[in-house]
Every structure is written in structure tokens, then in C-alpha cells.
Amino acid sequence: MRGKFAETLRQRPGTVVHIAGRRAGAPAPQATQPNVFQHSLFAGSRLSPGRLLAQWRFWCLLRRLGPDVVIVHAPELLPLTLLWRGLAPGRRFIYDVRENYALNVSTQHVYGRAVRQALAAGLRFVESWAARRAAGVVVAEISYLDELPFLTEAAGPVLVLENKYQPQPGERLPTRGRQLPTPAEPLRLLYSGTISDLNGVWEAVALAESLQAARPGEAHLTIVGFCQQPALLRALQRKVAAHPHWLRLVGGPEPVPHARIVAEIQRSHLGLLPYRPHPSTERCRPTKLFEYLAHGLPMLVSPNPLWLAQVERYAAGRAFDFAAPPPASELLASLQGRAFYPAGVPTDVLWAEEGKKLWPLLDSSV
């Protein structure tokens, strides 16, 4: 919300942007702007009772600020937004669909079967209700145009804004791709983003472990991100404690500032996208894919045709079956001497052009 939407919206003359969500650290000094304000709605885990209190805080914020337009990035805030809109004529909101929430809930087995079905049905009902009343709907994936039936009911325009990379304030992106180090130097592997079984964190650990066995001391894995599964986090912390010489964890129980993730991308040699095949991810392009491409970072990618099309287009890496990996020596031999990003680091993976699409939508909403 801060790095992309707010950064784009704040540039509009006469615009003041208020961001409300999970408590985050203070922005870096170079990221502060006089017309951007942050408000904490809650902190803690996703099942924290504080999420109920967040609803009251959000309502109070709506009443106090009296915004001209509300952009909702989380479906749990839709009911109160709809109530706020219904209480006075002329109030407008835009719904930003970050994920196919009903599909995620119904297939990821975070909850019991009955709870999953009820939550998925409730989400789809609220989203359909919101689409019929929103001034516009934004979706993060092209595939959502086919997956989400409520989009056909939308009263306003539907806009695709892909989750491309927005550089940090003052950041200078490379123009040439990174090459792997020589066999005499340590190879720094990176797993970034949400830490979960589904996203393949254990596959990343297994790969690093096999590389260690083949060439001790020559492969290091950094895992940086936020883990919302306490049991998984404890198991991962035990693994890190047992192998501190080649395995490192940054973050875990709390969200990691994006600048820290970017710093890890910049110091790494090889990014990993070890996602397990799953309906909730197979038609989506992960944020880290755009982040790695924007930084010229070579990568190993699970054999998903949608992701591979991007990787192969820029010669940014190779497909890799994390579930049945080849011998470590064979992998290393296939990577050494390979030229990555021969045409340079791509610029069409950046948010700048996507953000410009917001202006017509905002103009139609005020």
C-alpha cells in the first residue's frame, strides 16, 4: 500500500493519502512525505483478537478523516466500507483484489473443512456485494478476469494492475544481470517473501543442504520474510540453530521491512522460487518474480509455464523441479558459465507504467 499505491497517488496535486493496516515500522527518512500518513489498525498474528478491534479502529478512522475515496486492499474491511458508503450519498470506494481469496481459503487447508467452506462462501458473497457498489475494481492478476465471477457484476470499470516492482526511494537499479560466482567463491541462495510449506521453504532448505553435501562451505541460504505458521517457524528456527554456518533466517514472527528484503536480493547470487504446485498459485505471478527480474538476479523456478515464460524471455534462469532435483554437482555444472540477462535487466517489470493506470480510475471516482 505504501510503496506502490500511496507512492503513485501522493504525486497527484492536492492529494493526501492515509494508509491503514497492520502495524509496520516507521518508513525510512527518504520515504517520508508530507502528504502521506500511516495508521495502525492491528498488530499480531492473523488469528489475533486484535483483528476484531481493527474493525472498530477502521470505522473510527473513516468517521474522523471523511475521505473522498477509499481504496480497500483487504476483503475483511469491505463490510464496514459498504456501511460507510451507504450512510451518505456520493461516497466512493475502489476494491483492490490482491488474491483469489475464496479459492485460497477453500484449497489451502489452513482451517477445517466446514470452516473453509463457510469462509469461502462468505468471502465470495461480500466481494460480489462490493463489486456491484464499487466505483471501480482493481485486480493484481490477468487470470482473475476469468477466475472471479463477481467481476462480471461490477458496476464500475475493472482494471488490471500487476504487482510489478517499485524501486525503493533513491534506489538505482542495475542495468546488467548478475552472474554467478566462480566455483572458488561461496554461492549465496535466497528465499524471500511469505515463509510457508506451500511456498516451498523446505524445498529451498533441502536444495541448500544438498549443495552443502556436494561442496561443503560453498553454498549459503538466506530465508527472509514473514511466517504466519507458528509450528513451521519453530521447526525452521531449530534447523537454523543446527546449521548456522550455511542457513540464515531474517524475520519470521514479524513482517520484514521491504528495504531489508531488497538488501538481501542485492547481496544474493541465485533466487529460488520453489513453490509447490497448487490451484491458488498456478495462475499467479509471484511478487518475488518481478523483484528478482528488476534486480537482474538469476533464479531457479518451479516448472510453472506462466513463470517460465518470463524467465526464458530474459534468459533470467532455468526451470528446476524442487520435488525431484538433479544431483547437486549436475545443477552447479549447468549454471556455471551461463550468461544471464544477455540483453540487460528488463524495465517492463517495473511498477511505474502500471501505476499510471490509476489516474483515469481515480478521475472517474471523484
What helical percentage do the residues reach? 25-40%
CATH superfamily of the largest domain: Glycogen Phosphorylase B
Number of domains: 2
What structural class results from the helix and strand content? alpha/beta
List strands and helices in order, with pairings.
Layout: H1 2-9, E1 17-22, E2 36-42, H2 50-65, E3 69-72, H3 78-86, E4 92-97, H4 101-107, H5 113-131, E5 136-139, H6 144-147, E6 158-160, E7 187-192, H7 201-214, E8 219-226, H8 230-242, E9 247-252, H9 258-267, E10 270-273, H10 287-294, E11 299-301, H11 305-313, E12 317-319, H12 328-335, H13 351-355, H14 358-363
Helix pairs in contact: 4-5
Fold and architecture overview:
It is a single chain. The longest helix has 19 residues. 31% of the residues are buried. The model has no long low-confidence stretch (mean pLDDT 91). The protein has a 6-stranded parallel β-sheet, with helices on both faces. Strands 3-4-5-6 form a 4-stranded parallel β-sheet. The protein has 14 helices and 12 strands. Helix content is 37%, strand content 16%. It is α/β, with parallel strands linked by helices and 366 residues long. The chain starts with a helix and ends with a helix. α3 links the parallel β3 and β4.
Notable characteristics:
14 helices, Rossmann fold, alpha/beta, single chain, 366 residues, 2 domains, globular
What would you say about this model in short?
By secondary structure, this protein is of the alpha/beta class.
